[in-house]
Structures are given as C-alpha cells and as structure tokens.
Amino acid sequence: MTDTSETLSGEARLKIRRNRFWTFCALGFAVAIVAGFVTGYAADLLVDGVLPGWSFFLMWGVALVSFTWFTWSYFRRVDELDLLDNLWASLIAFYFYFVAMPSWWLFHDLGLAPEVDHIAIYFATAVVMFAAYGLRKLGLR
Amino acid sequence: MNNRLKVLRAERDWSQAELAGRLDVSRQAVNAIETGKHDPSLPLAFRIARLFEMPIEGIFDDGHE
C-alpha cells in the first residue's frame, strides 16, 4: 500500500488526523456505555448467584485494563498542547482535592460542617478538572 | 517567546489548518504558538524549523541577544 501522507495537503492530513481521533473517542465512549450496561446486568446475576464470585474480579480487571489502555492510547494521539491542557487540568483538580478534603474534615472537626462526603468531593474534583480543561480549550492559558 | 510563525505561514499562503496538518498537531496548537500562549517543545520547534527550512532562532526569539 502506497503511503500518500506526503502527497496530501496539510489540511487533508489534519482532517484525517481529526477524524481518526474522534472515531477513537466515539468508539471508546460506545464501548464504555455497552460495558456499563453489561456489568450492571451482570451485577444483578452475581447478586442472584447465577454468576460465580470470581466473575466480579474478572470484570473489574477487564475494565481496569481497558481504561488503562484507552488512556495510554489517548495520550499517544493528542498533541503536546492537548497533553499540557490535560496535565494542567489534572493538577488543578488534584490541588482542589488536596485542599477541599482536609478543609471539610477540619470544619467537621470544629462542628461547623457535616461528615466528609467523599463521593461529593470525588464528583466535585471531576467537575473542577473538566472545567479547567474546558477553560484552557477556550484559550485561557 | 516571540515567533515569526504567522508571517512565515502567510508568506506561503498557508492556513493554520494547513500548517497544523504538515506539523501533525492540532490547529489549536498552531494558534496557541502564533499568539504566544504556548512555547513549542524542542522536537516540535525542530519540526517547524525543518518545514520552513530555517534555523530555530530564525523563527523563535527569546528576547536575548
């Protein structure tokens, strides 16, 4: 097969690059949704005793390996600017967590707040990360 | 860091997308470099220099003599 990458214009190459990237993301998203449905159904079978106990660890392992592979592959596909945007968003989110969790715990210790809700902090951290990433994508670097 | 990327691109009548495709980066990356919001890595700076057939210091200027 002849490599046509040198004969294509830059705009055509960018279009191919973009299409491949979004196809990869769409496939990853679709697989994640299907996996979510399958594991949800399997969890019911597990609780009912239809599936053996070890199948839980198998599903968890497959999900973990798949997520790791997708993330690794994703960061090989993005360019250095997007990689930086991701790293900054992750760092900002980590700092948010690093401050939010002990602050809440301190306020709870002083009787000023209810017990620390780790799920709430988990989702808030994710929101901060996506917001930071989005702002950088909008050009606020 | 200042750079002449926009001028060099205009001289060749290339769009940002055209340059991005030739450098294998996103159009946003080209825009961020042109506007000084992102300093390219050394490998990307070399790719840019090779593409325009110029030395790196002929494209990028860090303000030092």
How is this structure best summarized?
Chain A has 141 residues and is an all-alpha fold.
What's the number of structural domains of chain B? 1
Strand content of chain B: 5-15%
Strand content bin of chain A: under 5%
Radius of gyration of chain B: 11 Å
Share of helical residues of chain B: 40-55%
Please give the number of β-strands of chain A: 0
Number of strands of chain B: 2
- Biggest sheet features of chain B: 2 strands, antiparallel
Helical proportion of chain A?
A: over 70%
Can you count the helices of chain B? 4
CATH class of chain B, named Mainly Alpha
Instruction: Give the overall pLDDT of chain A as a whole number.
Output: 92
Spans of chain A of at least 5 consecutive residues whose pLDDT stays below 50 are none
Explain this structure.
The complex is a heterodimer of chains A (141) and B (65). Chain A has 141 residues and is mainly α. Chain A has four helices and no strands. In chain A, helix 1 (10-47) packs antiparallel against helix 2. Chain B has a single domain, classed as lambda repressor-like DNA-binding domains (434 Repressor (Amino-terminal Domain)). The model of chain B has no long low-confidence stretch (mean pLDDT 94). In chain B, 52% of the residues lie in helices and 6% in strands. Chain B is globular. Chain B has a two-stranded antiparallel ribbon. Chain B has four helices and two strands. At the A-B interface, helix 1 and helix 3 of A face helix 2 and helix 3 of B.
List keywords for this structure.
heterodimer, A: 141 residues, mainly alpha, B: 65 residues, 434 Repressor (Amino-terminal Domain), two-stranded antiparallel ribbon
Walk me through the topology:
The complex is a heterodimer of chains A (141) and B (65).
Chain A: H1 10-47, H2 54-77, H3 80-109, H4 118-137
Helix pairs in contact in A: 1-2, 3-4
Chain B: E1 2-3, H1 5-11, H2 16-23, H3 27-34, H4 42-52, E2 60-61
Antiparallel strand pairs in B: 1-2
Helix pairs in contact in B: 2-3
